[in-house]
Amino acid sequence: MKIIDGGVTAAKGFKAAGMHAGIKKGTKKDMAMIVSSAPCMAAGTFTTNLVKAAPVKWDQHVVYEHGEARAVVVNSGIANACTGAEGYGYCEETAKAAAEALGIDKDEVLVASTGVIGKQLPIDTIKKGVKDLSGLLLDTREAATLAAESIMTTDTVKKEVAVEVEIGGKTVTIGGMCKGSGMIHPNMCTMLSFLMTDAAISKEMLQKALSADVDDTYNMISVDGDTSTNDTVLLLANGLAENPEITEEGEDYQTFARALHYINETLAKKMAGDGEGATALFETKVIGAQSKEQAKILAKSVICSNLTKAAIFGHDANWGRILCAMGYSGAKFDPEKVDLYFESAAGKLKIIENGVALDYSEEEATKVLSEKAVTAVADIKMGEASASAWGCDLTYDYVKINADYRS
């Protein structure tokens, strides 16, 4: 696998555009479009929240009932959630506008929204934005960046990644972008993730690869414990790499799945590290577990603990908070067998052994915990399974950002 500099235009046949359409105040970019020159197999996973935004319902219709797609239209600033039949109608109007501008069917257009819940979209502004974006589409690296910037809300950085792999003697590329900073919690988070590949792969295998991988990537991150109404991951495959079509599990499928996992894990970690107000990416790795599910439950519990997140912000090796979070997770383990380490670019330090604190240096611990990425490793000594979860520290700025979100 080769990591390349790219985003949603990295794979063959994909163009993108991003711009300020007028949804947000000022001049911030707020609309993006991605288009494939060829029909795509479409796969998707969506929020587990019972309150589903209108674009989630529209995309489920396209992915599950139509099956193919050619374009994605995204707006930021307004979530189009809790907007009733009118909000769903605006999704269809957006798709119709894109279909007319691009010469495709409206059921080949996916839509996504992120922002404030409860407001109706300014549909005339959206439709004009769609028309303008259709004239700006390019397959350049810069176009991918503009699209990535245009879907941001409280994100502080754009989030993109791309890789190349060889399948059947052909170079297959997967490129993606996402947004997510707050209202993020398993399962699925306030996140929109758009993945484009030129792989030739059946719809069944495409959906299988995405659904399986989401559990180990996007569903293993949390910023604030709130599961959004708009979570959407879309994966489009147009087949232009001309590799032998992947129609069953095997070596080619595994190669594709590994590349997809790298894309998803990278984007998931970018979101966790850019949590609202965050100063550090906080990873918890549970090793020595009896099962992967046990490890996942324990790891998630730690990264969701507000007390632990606050300790990470304070660069404080308050290991009791980690053991406490593991204890209320619901997973069974023996606290008196747990070894715990903190590690970062500044080094690795063993904090407890068999559930009891060691005579470690607080000064050294603070040094390790002062990096931009910090990992807690918990060895529960019960087996060979492991899992990782990702979150961030809890800072003063998180409250400020969310207190002022609508103003």
From TrEMBL:
Enzyme active site: 190 (nucleophile)
Annotated EC: 2.3.1.35, 2.3.1.1
Name of the protein this chain belongs to: Arginine biosynthesis bifunctional protein ArgJ
Function: Catalyzes two activities which are involved in the cyclic version of arginine biosynthesis: the synthesis of N-acetylglutamate from glutamate and acetyl-CoA as the acetyl donor, and of ornithine by transacetylation between N(2)-acetylornithine and glutamate.
InterPro entries: Arg_biosynth_ArgJ (IPR002813), ArgJ-like_dom_sf (IPR016117), ArgJ_beta_C (IPR042195)
Alphabetical UniProt keywords: Acyltransferase, Amino-acid biosynthesis, Arginine biosynthesis, Autocatalytic cleavage, Cytoplasm, Multifunctional enzyme, Transferase
Catalytic EC class: transferase
The reaction(s) this protein catalyses: L-glutamate + acetyl-CoA = N-acetyl-L-glutamate + CoA + H(+); N(2)-acetyl-L-ornithine + L-glutamate = N-acetyl-L-glutamate + L-ornithine
UniProt pathway annotation: Amino-acid biosynthesis; L-arginine biosynthesis; N(2)-acetyl-L-ornithine from L-glutamate: step 1/4; Amino-acid biosynthesis; L-arginine biosynthesis; L-ornithine and N-acetyl-L-glutamate from L-glutamate and N(2)-acetyl-L-ornithine (cyclic): step 1/1
Domain of life: Bacteria
GO molecular function per UniProt: L-glutamate N-acetyltransferase activity, acting on acetyl-L-ornithine as donor
Protein residues bound to substrate: 153, 179, 190, 276, 402, 407
Gene: argJ
Primary localization: cytoplasm
Swiss-Prot/TrEMBL site (Involved in the stabilization of negative charge on the oxyanion by the formation of the oxyanion hole) positions: 114-115
Family to which the UniProt record says this protein belongs: Belongs to the ArgJ family.
Localization, UniProt: Cytoplasm
Subunit structure: Heterotetramer of two alpha and two beta chains.
